[in-house]
Amino acid sequence: MGRWAGTAVLLLLAVLWGTMVPTIAHLLKTWDPLFLATLRYLGGGPALLPALLLIGRDGGRAVPFWRVALLGAVGIGGYAGLFTFGVAHANPVTAAIITAAGPAVATATDRLIFGRPINPHMLPGLILAICGCVTATIDFTRAGSPFDLRGGEILILAAITCWSWYSSAAQRWLKGWSQLRISCVTMTTGGVTLTIVYLIAAALGGVPFPPPVPSSAEDTLVLLWLVLVLVAIGVLLWNFGVQRSGVVTASLYLNLTPIIAVLILSLGGTLPNLQQVIGGGMVILGILWAELATMRNASPPPAGIDEAPGL
Prior knowledge:
The protein has helices at residues 2-17, 20-27, 33-47, 49-55, 65-88, 92-98, 102-112, 123-137, 152-173, 179-203, 217-245, 247-253, 256-267, 274-296. It is an all-alpha fold. It has one domain. Helix 1 packs antiparallel against helix 11 (217-245) and helix 6 runs antiparallel to helix 13 (256-267). The chain starts with a helix and ends in a 15-residue tail after the last helix.
C-alpha cells in the first residue's frame, strides 16, 4: 500500500510541477529572480504551519540545529536560488527538458555522498531518459553551437544536485519526523536564508528594492499558485514520495514534468519541435523501463527511510 500511495503522490506531483517552469518564466517578467526565489519558500514553509500545529505534533527526536540549518540553506535555499536564476537565463523549453537529468543526478548523489549502490536494472531507463534530454535540447539548424544554451543550464543542474542531496539527507537526518514537519521546518529555514541573502544583495545595490507590487490580478493568482501549491504542497508531496520510493525512483516520475511543461508552453505559443517530441517520448520510455525493472527486481528501501512516518 505504501508503494502505491507513493506512486499516486508522485504522479500528482509531476502534473503540478509540470507548471513550475512556465509559472516562474511568467513571474520573472515582474520580479527579480532572487526576490522570487526568496518569496517562494519564505511563504511556502509558514503556509504549512497551521496544519503542523493541528495535526503534525509527531514528537520526533531532537536533531542538531546545524543539520536543519544546512538542509534549509543548501538544500532549499541553494536549490531555489540556483533554479530560479537558471530559468531566468535559459530557454524555457530547454529549462523544462533539462530537468530530465534529475534521476541521473540523484543516482550519482546517492552513490557519492551516501554510498548507496546503483541499481543496475534501472540503468537502461536512466540512460534513455538522458538521451531523451539531449535529443530534445540539441538543434542542428542553429548557427554555431547546435545547443540553445544560454548559461543558465549549469545552474539548473547545480540546483538539481542540491535538491537530490536534500531529498536523501532530510529522510536520513530527520528520521522520526513526519513529512509535514520536515517540509515546514526546512522550507522555513531555507526562506529565512534566502531573505538574508536578498537583503544583503539589496543593500549592495545588486537587486531592486523595494520589489514591485503585482501588476495585475493574474500575477497575484499565479504567485499564489507558485507559493501555496507548487512549493508548500509540492515539497510536502515530494518528501512523502521520497520516503515511500527513494529519491532515484521519485526523480524518475518527475521526468514527466518536462513533457507537461512543454505542453503548457505550447499553449502560450512556444511550440515544441519534432526533436523535442521525440526526446519527450524517450524520457517517458525511460521512466517505464526503469519502473518495470525496479518492480521485477524489488530491492529494500533506502537506508534510513524504511520506517519514516507519513504525512
